[in-house]
Amino acid sequence: MKKNNLKIVKIDKHKSLFNYEKKILINELILDLKLGYYDFEKEKPQKVKFSLEIDYEDKKPSSDKDIKSIVNYGTIVKLITKLVKKKHYNFLETLAEAVFDELFKDKRIGKIMLKIEKLEILKQCSSVGIQITKKRSHDKL
To answer: CA angle at residue 114 from 140 to 27, to 5 degrees?
Structure first.
């Protein structure tokens, strides 16, 4: 018979044995905003759809009593809503960069996939837009 060589290991509750890879999903946030390069786009608001996947890492599990232990999707929706009311963006790409700048202030966030679509700009299409993925670089400049 083979002898089992298992060791009993004591787990230190203050030391994390795991890394958590988490993803926030925000699908089809639709806002009315003035967005665009052409004069007719600057005159009246148009429907714009945002979808995001936000990857973040954590060394500990989320606490059911501490909202700061998570990346809060409600806060993200409010942040985007506030951002688009602050100024006019000519291009989807510059709006995307402003969203990235705000969201990456949270150091836990490592990667964001952002899709922004104009829903009413071309009659032949249900939408036109961009999708950009931006990752945090861990290289020091």
So the answer is: 140
